[in-house]
Amino acid sequence: MKCALVGSRFFAASVFEALRKEEGIEFTSIVAPAVDDRLALAAQAAGVAVHVLENPRFVPGNAIAEGTDLIIAAHTHARVSDEALARSRLGGVGYHPSLLPRHRGIAAVEWTILEGDPIAGGSIYHLADGWDAGAIAAQDWCFVAKGETARELWERALAPMGLALLRKVVHHARMQGSVPAYPQDPGFATKAPMIRKSVVLTEEVSSTTTSLVVSIVGADRHGIVSSLAERAERFGANWAASRMTKLANEFAGTVHFEVPPENADALAAALRGLESSGLQVVIARSDGARVPTSLRVVELELVGEDRVGIVSKLTKILAERAISIESIHTEIIRSGVSGKQTFKIEAHLLVPAALSVDALRQELGTLAREMMVDIALGERQNPAQ
After folding, report:
1. Residue 159 to residues 140, 165, 256, 331: CA-CA distances in angstroms?
2. What is the CATH number for 251?
């Protein structure tokens, strides 16, 4: 039976090593997020070609070899596209470390511990539209030890369980030519969204620096970013933050430089010199601006199936609570011929100190349930404090 393996890290490498020793199993496609990922290295050592994902969250059709019988997902956050699934005779299955439909989402093991579940488990499910919502092929369970951490539970029980369940399902598929499928009961579904730990800034922005926020637009070509970096280094500027992309064959980017005040004018002049090469350059300058101590800095990430109204409803909730959006980035990840798309928001918020992050998280939880999206919040230390 010809298999494709999509995954990463130690677990996927373990699945690869175990299944390639099984009689009648051949791997025709190994799909990894990076060339130095543990799965990629294991495949290379075994002489198996590796497809490295251009987008680590999306598996295109050409990543899967024609004639594949079964796609196996092991420790991957990449969505397997409809085109990829269409290349596999039996579709695809993945391992999820929970008793689905409980704890659907990216942090199932963590939420098992946070919810105080006395029993944990693992599920082999069919890759399909929705978040871990495909039919169940196989399940198993285990007790959660008192005081056990998520990492300990994964290493002691859930990782070995996943390996055993995948071997069981692959063996069944090889012998019977099919994969068991038992629909999940959505009435018992719970969400296990990403848990973002607080991020503490270890270095404060010096009040002696000047901020230059530079916007660049122009025909895309090789060397634009390199030109910016070279000028920043020449004048002792720190590349603090940036957002760059290619839109309709045009390069568009914004960069925040922190530069010694005595070099600010010279750096600005050097950057404006790029206009002679056809780029449009706009520079905004500020000296030592800080976030007021009455505000806290909060990072927000939202991921879910694209639909009308996500941005408007989110921003309405934020505006009603006097929350300012310091920056926001949105992205649509297309997932195949079905037209299904994943929508992602990353935003930096300035939240009134009187509104706790827990209270905001609870209010946004209502929106998350209503629109079937994952929303994660993480607070950063305000450098002005």
Report:
1. 12, 10, 42, 32
2. 3.30.70.260
383, 201 in Cβ contact below 8 A?
Answer: yes
Predicted pLDDT of residue 99: 96
CATH (domain of 171): 3.40.50.170
**Residues 161 and 310 occupy one common structural domain:** no
Residue type, 168: K
Burial of 231 (0-12, 13-18, 19+ CB in 10 A): buried
**How far from 141 is each of 165, 169, 332, CA to CA, in Å?**
11, 16, 36
Length, in residues, of the chain = 385
Cβ neighbours of 192 (radius 10 Å): 24
* Beta strands 119-126; 136-143: pairing state: antiparallel
- SS3 at position 236: coil
123: amino acid identity, one letter: S
- Note the pTM of the prediction, 2 decimals: 0.55
Shared domain check, 366 and 231: no
Helix (H, G, I), strand (E, B) or coil at 345: strand
Burial pattern 128-167, b for ≥16 Cβ within 10 A else e, equals: beebbbbebbbbbeeebeeebebeebbeebbbebbbebbe
Q: Which residues sit opposite 252 in a β-bridge? A: 217, 245
Determine the structural domain holding residue 251 and report its residue range.
Answer: 210-287
Domain boundary among 234, 269, 287: 287
Tell me the pLDDT tens digit for each residue of 82-123.
999 999 999 999 999 999 999 998 888 988 988 889 999 999
Per DSSP bridges, beta strands 295-305 and 250-259 are: unpaired
DSSP, collapsed to helix, strand or coil, labels residue 234 as helix
